Each structure stands twice: as structure tokens, then as C-alpha cells.
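Schema walkthrough. Field components (list of strings):
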Amino acid sequence: MNIKKTDEQYIAHTYKRFDLAIVKGKGCLCYDENGREYIDMTSGIGVNAFGYADPVWAQAVADQAKTLQHTSNLYYTAPCAELAQILCTRTGMDKVFFSNSGAEANECAVKVARKYAASHKGADYYNIITLNKSFHGRTLTTLAATGQEHFHHDFLPLTEGFLYADANDTEGLQRLVAENKVAGILIETVQGEGGVNTLDADFVKAVDRICKENDLVFMIDEVQTGNGRTGKLYSYMHFGVQPDVVSTAKGLAAGLPMGATLMSEKVSSVLGYGDHGSTFGGNPVCAAAAVSVLDRMDDAFLAQVAAKGQYVKERIEEAGFTVSGMGLMIGITTKKPVAEVLAACMANGVLCLSAKEKLRLLPPLNIPQEQLEKAVDVIIDAL
Ligand SMILES: Cc1ncc(COP(=O)(O)O)c(C=O)c1O
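Field assembly_structure (string):
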């Protein structure tokens, strides 16, 4: 089969693909149809936390697939219960709702915030404040949450009741809260798709404070920043804040679809029987994968993620370029068009990403130092 031709003919043209078909991978390396090797600095956009075909992950998935692959949410299953327990224990959250993607994890967060506000303040307190340059997903509600106008047009009307504040503008945020009937505030600590923009620590703390003072639901979208990516299990842990809701997905099951919405005690009983659901949410195979992922993300592992991120940052800065982000979520301001840098990296065997006009790196969290050094050499050349 001609992969590229068949794909072009039969798959909707919503993705502008690179001219590359990946046929297999191992660790941080992947291979095209001709056997050409690439160092992968993308991990499937922050998903493959342990790279391709990781043996521990693959074993957990295979064992569960051979035991019990799906039951529906009418029954209890062990992997789902165990995963929820691990997530709550490691975050101090009270309950979890499982879904299949980041967008769905955010949809759930919005439902929690709206129902909490409706029952505590009144049904007209439905507004959710998000930030300009944010990205929260592609469903009509999470597009509305996404503070980037260009994603909106052509799909109007979106879900109503979203307001946008500028990142790091505490006064502006306070004004929006004072002038509107607000249910909650949703932020990313590092805006991934928006250009790897890390929020100021003072601003993140101010969001926490404003939510507490006004009894708003403080939601952090950890879809991209979560599950070890920034060098902590969840990125909010860098900021000394305690959100009411954390949404996550991407790296959670390290290559299988899984979303999770973590709820603190304040909001954990908001959703009751019949309020929300998902056929595949909490699927035992995905949950077993996620349990195996979180089991390996101990303090020593997370410290290595931070150290590798620091290594990349220092090398790139020494070469004269500005770096943003945290841990192994890295943005680099390029001097030539980012498309040219991406092409040069790929031509020299390194796969990278972009975020707006920046070069973005999201390598597997366990990338060996030797491969990381090789990749950084190629990236500096390309820059
Ligand atoms: C911060 C953030 N939220 C939500 C999403 C949407 O996740 P998904 O594509 O799994 O629906 C993304 C995807 O890039 C993201 O980066």
C-alpha cells in the first residue's frame, strides 16, 4: 500500500502532515518506510511519555488486553479504581472522572464549574474566564474556551458564556470577575499551543486567590503540562497553588486515549448519577497503561525530567536563542521562519514541533542523555 496516497485519498484533510510515514519506533527513535531513523523530540505531541513501544508499558497494556478489555461503566473494574486512587493520593484531590481526551476532560471541568455555581449562586453564574492565547480543545465548548479567535470563526455559534483575560494581567482578570457573573477560571500554567508561554508565578497565585475570594472554581488544564512533562507530576505543583479541578490527558496513558478530570473536595460531589458519562472513559486497558505510567513517575524520575530540560535550555541559550517553558516542554524563539528550522531538523534526522512562531520540543520524558545531546546538536545547527 502507498500509505501517503491512500491517506490523502480517504482521510479528511484536517491535518497538514509532514512528508513522513512512521512505521515503527523504539524508545525515542522512530523509522520511516525506508528504514531511515529519526530522534523523536515530539512524543506524538506530548503523549508517548516513555517513547515508542516501551517494554513495561507494552506489557501492562498486553496483560490487561488479554484479561479484560472493556466492561462499560455499569460495572467496577480494578485498573480504573486503582488509577483513580493513585491520582487522588498524589494530588490531594478527592475524586476523578475518566474520559478519552483532553477536550473531554475540559468539558467535564466546565460542567463541574457551571453546576457548582448554579447550585451555590444561581443559574445565571455560568461564565467561565479563560486566557487569551489559550488552547483547550476542538469541541464546540472547548473551542469557546480557547482564547484564540481564529479557531472560532466558521463554527459559530459556539457554547456561550466564555470570557477572555490577558495572561499575567491580574487587574484585568479582577475587573472581569467583578463585572460578570462568573462560575470559574480555567488556565494552562504553560500555554502549549499558544507558544509555550509560562505564566508568571504571581499571576497563577493571584488566580488562586481571586477564585478563593469569590468562591469561583479554579480549573487548571494540565492536558499538555501534566503527567511529569514539566518536572513535577502536575505543573501547578511548581506554583504553590491548589486548584479545584485539574484536567489532564495526553501523557497519562502514554499512547492510549485517556482523559481525567480531578476534583477537589469542594466540587467532588457536584456531578451526581446521570450528570455525565462516557462509554470508553476509564477503559481498563487505558487505565492499566496509566497505572504503569504513574508508578514509574517517582521523584527521582521527575528530577531527571527537570535536569534534562535544564540541559536543553542551557545549550540552546549558549547558542544565542531564547528558551521558554518548563522541564521537557520547551519553546525556542527562532531567528528564521520556524518551518525552515523544522525542515532542516527533519532532513538531519530529528523530529520537532512548532507552537505559533516558536520551535517546540516535547521529547519522551525518558530520552537517554546521549540521544538528547545528538538531537540538540542538530537543532542548534538548524537554528
Ligand atoms: C492544553 C490543552 N488542552 C486541551 C487539549 C486538547 O486535547 P485533545 O486533543 O486530547 O482533545 C490540548 C491539545 O493539544 C492541549 O494542549
